[in-house]
Amino acid sequence: MDVLMSLFRVDSRGEALWVLFGFLAQAMFMMRFLVQWIASERARASIMPVAFWYFSLAGGVMLLSYAVYRQDPVFIMGQALGLVIYIRNLWLIHAGKMPEQAPPK
């Protein structure tokens, strides 16, 4: 752990854990592009799978948590806006899959 603390230039184990969390969050966020790329290659067309939005949401929440901890207002605003978009896209996807209800008689 001391090597990591020196490498990341942090003073405490808590800080080092937050930096590791930040890297994990960035990896989660990056996975969305890998998922989208693989889906598009398989389809031979540009595809946006639902998993893209779930990875976006998970990575966005994690990165927002990290940004809040680091007290970075630019990073916070960027991730907060992204979360609204990811949630809205998932809402639209799932709302489109619900069976239509018959109008009341």
What does this structure look like?
There is one protein chain. It is built from 4 helices and no strands. By secondary structure, the chain is mainly alpha-helical. The protein is elongated. The protein starts with a helix and ends in a 9-residue tail after the last helix. The protein has a domain at 25-96. Helix 2 (13-43) runs antiparallel to helix 3 and helix 3 runs antiparallel to helix 4. The mean pLDDT is 86.
Please sum up the structure shown.
78% of the residues lie in helices and 0% in strands. It is built from four helices and no strands.
Give me some keywords for this one.
4 helices, mainly alpha, 78% helix, single chain, elongated, 105 residues
- Helicity range: over 70%
Low-confidence blocks of residues: none
Number of strands: 0
The average pLDDT value, as a whole number, equals 86
Strand content: under 5%
Element string (H = helix, E = strand) = HHHH
Number of helices: 4
Give the biggest sheet. Answer: none
Shape: elongated
Query: Terminal Cα separation, in Å?
Result: 67 Å
The Cα radius of gyration reads 19 Å
Name the structural class: mainly alpha
